[in-house]
Amino acid sequence: MTSEVVENEFEFYSKAEKYWKDVPATVDGMLGGYGHISSIDINSSRKFLQRFLRDGPNRTGTTRALDCGAGIGRITKRLLLPLFKTVDMVDVTEDFLTKAKSYLGEEGRRVRNYFCCGLQDFSPEPNSYDVIWIQWVIALPCRPAAQRHRGHQGQHGSGGGDHGRCGQQRLPGPGRGP
Ligand SMILES: C[S@@+](CC[C@H](N)C(=O)[O-])C[C@H]1O[C@@H](n2cnc3c(N)ncnc32)[C@H](O)[C@@H]1O
């Protein structure tokens, strides 16, 4: 029974990985052909997120955010980079992260890490992120990083630590060389 579950899980992730390899590295690709709703999608997310960033005793820090299943960086570019000092991106599709380095433009220099990794294998360093964001991905992995990270970040989060652990590769950032 146990091995059956594990096997299926492996197959599930392998199929998903293959699927995303064939998807164009564009906003339309990220949204399954619904690229035209990108702005309204991001504006709604911003409204939601800003509720947690307003002044008050439980205000969330703005030092460091993690974009889970970040793709080409649609969310990193228009939602997270304007609100956080630095952002890390994690995605299983290497081509998307490569594309992100040009898609993000100048502001992309504030992306500290491009983790090429399945979320099911990604363990963020405790207390590393003020916000862990996942958009248009949550139905895909079984046990995303955000779930495992819950309870690890400081209440107000300082942004501190450096890397998440990942069984796969960490891509060099732009200008940082391989
Ligand atoms: C629908 S796109 C959304 C991309 C981005 N969040 C956005 O809103 O534009 C889904 C993304 O999740 C990534 N993905 C799918 N399964 C994943 C997994 N198990 N671990 C990490 N990333 C995954 C895909 O490579 C793709 O970039």
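^ S-adenosylmethionine complex. The beta strands are 64-68, 86-91, 111-116, 122-123, 131-134, 165-166, 170-171. The chain has one domain: 2-171.
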